Amino acid sequence: MPRHVAIIMDGNGRWARARGLPRIAGHRQGAEAVRRTVVSGLELGIEYLTIFAFSSENWKRPEREIDDLMGLLRLYLRAEIGELSRQGVRVRFIGDRNRLSRDIRSLIDEAERTTDANQAITLTIALNYGSRQEIVRAVRRLARDVATGALVPEDVDEAMFGRYLDTSEMPDPDLLIRTSGEQRLSNFLLWQSAYTELVYLPTLWPDFEKADLENAVVAFQRRERRYGASSG
Ligand code: FPP
Fold it and tell me: What is the CATH number of the domain that holds 63?
């Protein structure tokens, strides 16, 4: 079983368009798919589930859609944290929190605080996340530590750099799934995905079910991970 599964949840807009519905309807069903997927992850014994909810590039979308997405997130955090906590879900967030509204920031803090001791699965929600921005933020903090003398450049290696990233507390993803047939990383977990198996599924995110997660896990299990070594 992969320990850490990351998901680029794509296809909400197309799901809605195919039904003649507004995009928000696709995002709403997408939030339902998130609920289902957390349960599936728990049932399959996945330890870390990381989902791309809002990218640092998504601010380019129409203001109305951004408001809808933030509204959904508010709703999800308010309505679900109790249930997630009962299920033993530890909730974390990655991404730059500075641009998020104050009320969302406090919902995030509260979600992290109230679920901190849970151990069944860690659900990490990437919000205003972009991998390049994350790396730049890490480099800034590292440079500051060098400037103050807390660190010398010779101390910097891959493991140390990883500790400056938002993902410092989790293992790298073993499996990364993108739905809706697109085959791109779109600035998601670039550093962390160096040896991750990528699985692209045609399913649109609002239709994502446990069987899709299982199919992706089977595809992962069939692959031979070599980390650069030759085949045995
Ligand atoms: C991609 O679909 C999806 C998003 C940009 C947002 C993902 C958000 C959710 C699944 C719902 C809210 C999340 C939580 C955690 C409650 P798209 O709009 O790019 O689809 P398209 O490519 O078909 O237009």
Answer: 3.40.1180.10
pTM summary value: 0.97
> Is the CB of 97 inside a 6 Å radius of any atom of ligand 1?
no
C-alpha dihedral over 12, 18, 22, 24, to 10 degrees? -20
Nearest CA to ligand 1 atom 16: 31
Nearest residue CA, atom 5 of ligand 1?
A: 54
- Asked whether residue 17 is domain-assigned, the answer is yes
10 classed as catalytic: yes
pLDDT tens sequence across 107-133: 999 999 999 999 999 999 999 999 999
State the residue range of the domain holding 92: 4-130+173-221
Query: What is the rounded CA–CA span in Å between residue 74 and residue 80?
Result: 10
Q: Does residue 141 form part of some domain?
A: no
Q: What is the pLDDT of residues 43-98, one digit of tens each?
A: 999 999 999 999 999 999 999 999 999 999 999 999 999 999 999 999 999 999 99
- Identified catalytic residue from 58, 118, 187, 215: 58
